[in-house]
Structures are given as structure tokens and as C-alpha cells.
Design a protein that fits this description.
By secondary structure, the chain is mainly α. It contains 7 helices and 3 strands, in the order αααβααββαα. The protein has helices at 3-9, 20-28, 30-41, 46-52, 58-70, 92-110, 112-126, and strands spanning 44-45, 74-79, 85-90. Strands 1-3-2 form a 3-stranded antiparallel beta sheet. It is globular, with a radius of gyration of 19 Å.
């Protein structure tokens, strides 16, 4: 085995101490997956990204972008002008990750009729009140 293969094999997401766990959480969390997918479409400024990722708060988007930047998935490009001009774009690793996430998103979106039918059967089998307050 070469050194690169040994390094990759050293990571096991199922191990509680594996450093890949936080990265996986950053990528697959609600805001991470949507942020990466939005940036796969284009380089975006903060407010444009916030509008694209409907429902994310300014604070959560900021935290998500910082985590993704730290993990090497996003580049923050701040131009030294007034007013400040900051853009976000994907790194090659971020682009590869986003491509795989988009495949998952397209799968889920394309199979939603089946998901909705399954939810209906589940809810009907357990009675309408099984999940109060949830849709």
C-alpha cells in the first residue's frame, strides 16, 4: 500500500473520533447541502446565496459558509473595495461534492410522488393524530 491509500484507509466515519464526521455533518446538514448545491450553479455574493437558500438565517448561512470554507469546500473571495464585495465559490473538492449531492437531490425530487404516497399510507395506518403539529 502506498502512503496516500494508507491515509485514506485511516478514516472511518463510523468511528466516533474520526475527523470525517464533522465534515460529513457540514456537507449533509440541511444548510450545507443546500449551500453547496446553490454554489454549484454559480459564484454568489452572500445576499444572493441567502435568497437562493430560502429560509436560512444570516447567522446560519454565515456559520455554514465558515465551516465549508474551513473544510476546503468553499472559497471566500473578498475584494478590497468600498462597499465590501465578497463572493463565494466552490473549490474543486466542493464542486465534486456538490455534484454528488445534486444527484441525491434529483433522486429525492424525482421520487417525491412515491414518498408522499408512502407518507399517506403510514399516516393512515397510524391514525391522523399520530404526529400532532407536523405535516
Amino acid at each position: 500500500m502506498n502512503q496516500v491509500t494508507e491515509q485514506v484507509d485511516a478514516f472511518d466515519v463510523f468511528s466516533r473520533d474520526c475527523p470525517s464526521r464533522p465534515t460529513l455533518e457540514h456537507v449533509t446538514g440541511r444548510w450545507g447541502i443546500l449551500t453547496l448545491s446553490a454554489l454549484a450553479e454559480d459564484t454568489l455574493r452572500f445576499n444572493a446565496l441567502r435568497r437562493r437558500v430560502d429560509g436560512v438565517s444570516e447567522k446560519m448561512l454565515s456559520q455554514t459558509l465558515q465551516a465549508l470554507e474551513r473544510d476546503g469546500l468553499v472559497i471566500r473571495d473578498a475584494q478590497p473595495v468600498t462597499p465590501p464585495h465578497v463572493e463565494y465559490r466552490l473549490t474543486p473538492l466542493g464542486q465534486e461534492t456538490a455534484t454528488r449531492l445534486l444527484d441525491l437531490i434529483h433522486l429525492v425530487e424525482g421520487r417525491m410522488p412515491e414518498v408522499l404516497a408512502a407518507r399517506g399510507r403510514y399516516d393512515e395506518a397510524r391514525g391522523a393524530g399520530w404526529q400532532r403539529g407536523q405535516k
